[in-house]
Amino acid sequence: MTSPLPLTLAAESSAPRSFRANLDRVLLYGVVGLLLFGPLAFGAVERWSMSIMQVGAGLLFALWAARQVAVGELKIVGNPLFFPMLFFAGLILWQLATRRTAYRFDTFSTALLYLAYGLLCFLVVQCLRRTSQVKVLAWVFSGYGCMVALFALTQGIAPNGKLYWLRSLPSGGWIYGPYVNHNHYAGLMEMLTPIPLAISLADNVRDSRRALAAVSAAVMASTIFLSGSRGGMTAFGTQMALLAGFLIIRRKNWKVALVLGGFLIVALGLMVWLGGGELVERLVSMHDGTRAELSDGTRLTIDRDAFKIFVQEPVLGWGLGTFPDIYPQFSHLSTNFQVGPAHNDYLQLLVEIGVLGFATMLWFLLTLFGSAFKKLKHLPADANTALTLAAVLGVTGILVHSVVDFNLQIPANAALFYVLCTVAAMEPRFGRHHHRHNTRAARRRAVLPGAYDLRPQLSTRELEVK
Length: 466
Description:
Layout: E1 7-10, H1 17-40, H2 47-71, E2 73-76, H3 82-97, H4 104-127, H5 131-157, H6 182-192, H7 194-201, H8 207-226, H9 230-250, H10 254-284, H11 296-312, H12 323-326, H13 345-378, H14 383-401, H15 411-425, H16 431-447, H17 460-465
Antiparallel strand pairs: 1-2
């Protein structure tokens, strides 16, 4: 499945090419800045940090619109995921317009957050255009993830029960890294670890950089286990199984197998060295309700309650963002434990948006993996393959983890997740494929100057005959 053709309405532009390129860089790195800001701000779960993400996304979109006016064109690059995203937005607007929501303010507030996610995805598609950008961003996210992981390791060695050793938690939690909840830290690393791992397995990477990327990925992966998140461990195991299947199909050479083996050895060594008996105890404990974490029995009770709530409003749900407000009315918990989001993102979606929202999610995921696997199957081993592989692995980790947790209710993790989804579904545009595409486009413009050709692309031989 490929992306829709770009929509271009152009006038004579007086803006220099360097001006347009600089604006594109500002937009792209502005989006990246917001994605990096979220995890450091405790996952962007507080009003001030959510507001920064929302206002930041809105300002970047306004800058993109101003760029289009300044350049004298309206050029929108499509993505297959834009259609289910727009349909989902339509469902939310319908809930608000018809007041089909238990708490209209909560639905409106959450809708603004989803709008910010959508704007970030849209801007990435419009601005991520060159292979050089992909390489820079891959190393930026790899370095960022490794630094966050090293901070989490240091904090784990010398904890004092406070975020950044400074901020106390009045309502408790299981701190790991910059997150109150260790499961959400694991979710972040599930998305970031595949990026340096993909670099280490890519072709045409110098051995020194390959080793550096593999070590960075190993440090990040080890903290998923050291965080104590069993959902994170399961998700990471699924990611590695998917990666092994991809490597077997592509029949990678011995060097890639050696790098992957080294990555696993370093990660395992760090886990044994720093985790020791505590990690083993966590792995074998399946009913541990200590350290401010829900027990498995409590999770199952919440899941059963959520399904019963869904049955009462099955078509369009109770309203986006309303689960924490309506759950106490239906709770069968034997304790006074206060439940926020459901510890299952799929059930929460059913409760809040109903069958129509769940069907939209399935449409979104089928489109995502259809587009991504088609690229992975047919493309040569270039930047498109590495980028798509990293994005697919990261997305898969969160999807598995979401069965037992609520990473997609954490703005920092959700924003990065949706951007990775958009990147995974993006049409090939980097490396050798991109060069061939540009060559064909240039030849078409030479044949039909000034025209926008909507016919199927012609081969080089056909163009030369014409």
